[in-house]
Known about the structure:
By secondary structure, the protein is α/β, with parallel strands linked by helices. It folds into two domains: about 1-85 and about 165-279, Metal-dependent hydrolases (TIM Barrel), CATH 3.20.20; about 90-155, DNA polymerase, domain 1 (Orthogonal Bundle), CATH 1.10.150. It has helices at about 15-25, 45-55, 85-110, 115-125, 130-140, 145-155, 170-180, 200-210, 225-235, 265-279; strands at about 1-5, 30-35, 55, 60-65, 70-75, 170, 185, 215, 240. Helix 1 packs parallel to helix 2 and helix 5 (about 130-140) packs across helix 6 (about 145-155).
Amino acid sequence: MIDLHLHSTCSDGTLTPAELVAMAGRKGLKAISITDHDCVAGVGDAFEAGRDAGVAIVSGLELSVVHRHVSLHLLGYGFDWKNQELAEKLTRLQHSRDKRNREILARLEAYDISISYEELATLSGGGQTGRPHIARLLVEKGVVGSMNQAFTDYLKKDGPAYVRRFAYSAEEAISVIHRAGGVAVLAHPVQLDRSLETLPQLVAELTSAGLDGIETYYPTQKGKIRKKLRQIAREFELLETGGSDYHGDIKPGTAMAGGIRFSVPVELYERLQERLTVK
Ligand code: AMP
Ligand code: ZN
Ligand code: FE
Ligand code: FE
């Protein structure tokens, strides 16, 4: 069993890369990938911890991109995490996030909610910082009762403290991942289209842009949904990947793959490795 979709303290997860690797080791997972949002700073630590724990590591990241005004998440796997161009692209994202975070805090200030930039930086630990961290501070300060309320009352799209942020196009992101030697995978497709009716068209367009795979195994993609997604993967000759999207215990009810409720077969990792070695 494997888990190719995990978030660490390098983005909005609560466990460090080494802690995630140790947990995977305890669960007996054969391979994992830490796919932090717009950030590869945890990949080096993951490789190091993986060697000690006997868990294979695939370099990973999750990029928020746009395609025809639709926001979607792309997973990158197996790239050179020290690639210069990738690092530059991610730095640009971090700068735009930084500016955006300051604007969100200014908007909250207008509602007499005081969060300093330093508090936010301390909580996030200096890695990728975004709305989930601001939501946590809103909960800690008692402004709202839950993360979810922080989003519905303030941070959601078009909410009173919402600020847009810069994103690369799907096409550009896929090319950058390719040039860094990796493969690009559409994350949790069910979140884009619950009915999956418009998905084949989207997948067709992304495949023309170079998409290599889709995430077919995901906790909310079971039964008929998974079956349909696997069918789409076969139709477009795409790799299949899978993971839990575990962020630590901050999101109640979520867990790393490997239990009875959700697991991902090791064959997906083997196919991915085959593809990466021929690249
Ligand atoms: P950002 O990248 O800073 O725009 O933040 C986006 C992240 O916020 C998403 O990846 C989710 O993890 C999180 N998020 C979005 N909506 C909600 C919500 N209603 N409750 C909790 N987390 C959310
Ligand atoms: Zn996240
Ligand atoms: Fe995602
Ligand atoms: Fe994710």
